[in-house]
Amino acid sequence: MAHLSFPSPLGPLTLIETDGAITALAWGERGGATETPLLRQARDEIAAYFAGRLRRFTLPLTPAGTPFQRRVWAMLAEIPFGQTRSYGDLARELDSGPRAIGGACGRNPIPLLIPCHRVLTADGRLGGYSGQGGLATKARLLRHEGAIPPEPAGPG
C-alpha cells in the first residue's frame, strides 16, 4: 500500500494506492511517502482540478465498501463537474431511501475524486459532508465548481 501526502487548497491531503488503484483520500499528512506514478498522476489531477484546468478525474478508483455503497459511489462519479443531485434523486434510482444514500456518502473513502460533495438535500441545502471542515469544505468545493453562488463580498 503506497501513499503520498501533498498540500492542497483544502489543507494537506493523503492519497492511498493499493494494487494499481486509488483506494482512499484522507485529510492530513502521513509520513513515509512511497510515491508511485499513479499517486503522482492523482496529485497532478487534483492540482489541475483546483487550478480550474480539470473537470473529470481519470484515475482508477477501487473504494472498499458494501455492494450498495459501491453502487452509490459509482453514481456519484457520474455527476458532472458543476452539477448537483439530491439524495432523493439518487435514492429513487437505486430503489432506496435518502438516508441510505447519505450514509453511503458519509462512508465514501475517496472524497473529492468520488464527488459526494455534489449531493444536496431535496430543497437545495448542503446536507452533510464528512470531509475535514464539514459543510464549509463542501460549500467551498461547490463554489469552486460554480454549482452554488459565490459568497457575497464583505463590506469594503
Would you give an account of this structure?
The protein has 5 helices and 5 strands. It is an alpha+beta fold and 156 residues long. A hairpin with a 6-residue loop joins β1 and β2. It starts with a strand and ends in a 12-residue tail after the last helix. The model has no long low-confidence stretch (mean pLDDT 94). It catalyses: a 6-O-methyl-2'-deoxyguanosine in DNA + L-cysteinyl-[protein] = S-methyl-L-cysteinyl-[protein] + a 2'-deoxyguanosine in DNA; a 4-O-methyl-thymidine in DNA + L-cysteinyl-[protein] = a thymidine in DNA + S-methyl-L-cysteinyl-[protein]. One of its GO terms (biological process) is methylation. Keywords: Cytoplasm, DNA damage, DNA repair, Methyltransferase, Transferase.
State the main characteristics.
single chain; 156 residues; alpha+beta; three-stranded antiparallel β-sheet; two-stranded parallel sheet; globular
Q: Which term fits the overall shape?
A: globular
Whole-number radius of gyration? Answer: 16 Å
Secondary-structure-based class equals alpha+beta
Strand fraction equals: 5-15%
| Average predicted confidence as pLDDT | 94
Total number of β-strand segments? Answer: 5
Please report the number of helical segments.
5
